[in-house]
Amino acid sequence: MTDDAHDVSSAEPGGADEMSDARAIEREIHERHEAEQHAEHEAEQHHVPHPEIPIDRQLEAILMIADEPQSLVALGAAVGAPVPAVRQAIERLVADFDGVDGTIRRGFELREVGGGWRFYVRQDLDPVVEQFVEAERPSRLSQAALETLAVVAYKQPITRSQIASIRAVNVDGVVRTLVARGLIEESFTDAETGAINYVTSDLLLQQLGINSLDELPLISPLLDDGADGFGQNEGIPDGRV
Question: The pTM is what?
Answer without folding.
Answer: 0.48
